[in-house]
Each structure stands twice: as C-alpha cells, then as structure tokens.
Amino acid sequence: MSCEDRFTSVLDTARLLVSRNGYQGFSDFSCVSATGATADELVALEGELGISLPTEYRQFLKIARYVKIDDGCEIGGLDANGVYVTERLWVSDQHKRGHKHIVFANYWMYADGDQLLIDAADLNGPVYVYLHEYAGLIETYAPSFSLAAWRLVNEYEPPDDDG
C-alpha cells in the first residue's frame, strides 16, 4: 500500500470513528481536516520549529491539516482558520536527555499525557511512543509516520459510557 493510499485509509477511518463516537458535536471545526497545508504554510512551520518535517508527515499535512478523533487520539499539525483543533506540533528536548523529538500526536491509549514522537536526528525513521506514567519510557511504535497514523486510528477504542 502506498503512503497516499494509507493516508486515504487513515482519513476515511478517522471520519467514520468521529461519526460514531459523536466527538464532532464538541467542536465548531471539523475533527478531520478537509484541506491540506500549502507549500508556504509548510515552509513557515519548518521555520517556526527550526527543523525540517519528516517526508511522510509533510505528505500527510498536504492532504489534511490535522485529525482529532477524541481527547487523546489526534495527529496535530496546522490550525483551522486560526484555531488549533489539536495540540500544536512542537519540538521537545525534554523527553530524552540529549535528544530532540518532534511531538506530533496525543496517544492516550495507556494514560493521558502519552505522546507520539519522531527523533529529530532520524526524521524518516521510526515513530516512538512516550509513556509518561512509566517513568517516561520511550518505545518504538511504528517503523514510519504513515504506519503510525494508520495504527493510531485502527487501535482507537471509544471510552466507556460510564467514564
């Protein structure tokens, strides 16, 4: 499956999940962006971050500015008419001493505060999950951004009705 096909699958699955879980009712903006970033916006974002974007993540942002399925299940990126529907993308030097990571997603599968990261020294390498309640454990999540995005939406389980 090509990256483009995988991203189409990710966005279709995300739209289905949002329609089923009712999360769209909590937002005035689309939970799954219908538009992508322009080349100028991507250059500006890279300038703001002080780092190039990984190739697959850049491809994704050209198709969709962000995806928010639920609290703690989102791929961040760009704003929607000046409003950030997801958390803003950022570069961290706090997750692992001596390393910079691009923090691009919330992943509250195990606990709120868990995040998906890309090592700034290996932009097109694997995606890692930061498990903050496990003493800041960082584990490999997927071998690439596109597979991480696919895994994120396909692992999503809506919260129980009682909490």
UniProtKB/TrEMBL annotation:
Chain ranges of the Knr4/Smi1-like domain: 36-153
Source organism superkingdom: Bacteria
Pfam families (UniProt xref): SMI1_KNR4
Protein name (database record): Knr4/Smi1-like domain-containing protein
Organism classification: Bacteria, Pseudomonadati, Planctomycetota, Planctomycetia, Pirellulales
